[in-house]
Specification:
elongated; 433 residues; 15 helices; Rossmann fold; alpha+beta; 8-stranded mixed β-sheet; BirA Bifunctional Protein, domain 2
């Protein structure tokens, strides 16, 4: 039997590999335009790094093994612990704020399904050193720019919440088990209503509290848009939210105001059911979701103000988000926006006779040194086959060598979109248009 990729792993032959590369290029460019600089992290770390962040339970999700020194190490399941480790080492000299992005492969030993593989690529954006929601506003604005740059305009929007508000709603509903309440809320859109009710009851929420939550979540079923957020949150606060929750309400109001001013008012909503990473995020939480179909989550993030201290660093406010390649692919393919592959070739050199192939190769090198993407036929194929190859490569033009009617020292340039031809001096043909 012929060998194949392991379960949960994928091959990416052309044109998909080129499409993925093009997406990463655009994402990197958008991050750099937003003032982020790239950080590169190892693919293997001490397993202790993940225990510090997530506890012993993380072992079931990691590719864990022992190195030749019998030290427990793991293939990296996420980038943030590595970022924290690196920042702690540089904290005394690193100017604030820190705006880093990473593009790295990660590995998690979990059940493969649509949008989830055991090996995946993740694009992270993180801001350290900014205590206010200005960090979240910058992250979401950058994420929006990045999504638009890869062709996802109108396919996505953001759902926002604040953990202090979510915790306050739980206390208002009479929840006796706060983590259990948040786990139930996190599953609100994923389980049948009866199962959700049962989970709330297990968390100690009374019948009247469950009725209050049902009304609240029903009123926000499609997300609360910016124009209604202030009134919705004020009404919620008037129901009896305590002081800690009201602080979260004010953060949300401020964040929505910043996002509207940044031109994102058409793609942000308040959603009280968004809670995310129960033991990780400290206030703001958000996720991007698909505007079509089942509205599935595409990626998420939020504020994690205690992680740097957990790793032995100074108190450092931080916020970030992580975009996985698998859910992003589902979004783009579903919306008909998946790239064709590698960028189009600028020039394909065509010869009338295979004897001219050495000259074609020399011309191709001149074009490449001049900054143009170029190629030529290496299989001595007919002119018609060469033009078909140029079309397959989506070449902008062909340069034809060997036409008898061409002036000595000139080449014939054919625009492959219009078919128009003209003679060019060879020196002119190798310059970028």
């Amino acid at each position: 039997m012929a060998p194949s990729a392991l379960r949960g792993f994928r091959d990416y032959p052309p044109p998909d590999a080129g499409a993925r590369s093009e997406l990463r290029r655009r994402m990197r460019a958008a991050a750099r335009r937003s003032g982020f600089v790239e950080l590169e992290v190892p693919c293997v770390e001490s397993f202790e790094l993940y225990q510090m962040k997530s506890g012993e339970g993380i072992a079931a999700e990691t590719w864990l093994f022992h190195d030749k020194g019998d030290r427990p190490v793991a293939l990296v399941p996420e980038q943030t612990p590595s970022l924290a480790r690196i920042f702690v080492d540089r904290a005394k000299s690193e100017p604030m704020p820190v705006k880093w992005f990473t593009v790295s492969k990660s590995w998690r030993y979990e059940e493969p399904q649509a949008g989830r593989t055991r090996e995946f690529l993740q694009f992270n954006l993180d801001i350290l050193g900014v205590p206010g929601v200005e960090a979240e506003a910058d992250l979401l604005a950058t994420a929006a720019l990045l999504m638009d740059e890869i062709g996802a305009t109108d396919l996505y929007a953001f759902r926002l919440n604040d953990r202090a508000v979510a915790d306050g709603i739980g206390r208002l509903a009479g929840a006796k088990n706060a983590p259990g309440f948040l786990r139930a809320v996190d599953r609100y859109k994923k389980v049948p209503p009866a199962e959700f009710e049962g989970e709330l009851a297990e968390a100690g929420v009374s019948e009247s509290g469950r009725a209050m939550l049902a009304e609240l979540f029903r009123d926000a079923a499609d997300g609360v848009p910016p124009a209604r957020v202030a009134h919705f949150l004020a009404t919620l606060a008037d129901r009896g939210l305590d002081d800690a929750a009201r602080v979260g309400v004010e953060r949300l109001r401020r964040l929505f105001d910043l996002l509207v001013r940044a031109g994102l008012g058409d793609r942000v909503v308040y959603d009280p059911t968004v809670v995310r990473g129960l033991a990780y995020y400290t206030s703001s939480v958000f996720e991007a979701y698909s505007r079509s179909g089942d509205g599935r989550s595409v990626f998420g993030g939020g504020r994690y103000d205690h992680l740097i201290e957990l790793f032995g660093g100074p108190p450092t406010p931080a916020a970030g988000l992580a975009i996985g390649d698998q859910t992003l692919e589902l979004l783009l393919r579903g919306g008909g926006r998946w790239p064709e592959g590698e960028p189009p070739l600028d020039t394909y050199v065509v010869v009338t006779d295979a004897a001219l192939t050495p000259e074609a190769i020399a011309l191709v090198q001149e074009l490449r040194r001049g900054g143009l993407s170029a190629d030529c036929d290496l299989l001595a194929r007919s002119m018609s086959r060469q033009f078909k190859e140029a079309a397959r490569r989506r070449s902008r033009r062909a340069l034809i060598l060997g036409l008898k009617e061409a002036t000595p020292g000139a080449v014939v340039e054919r625009d492959l979109a219009t078919g128009a031809q003209r003679e060019l001096a060879r020196t002119s043909a190798v310059r970028p248009a």
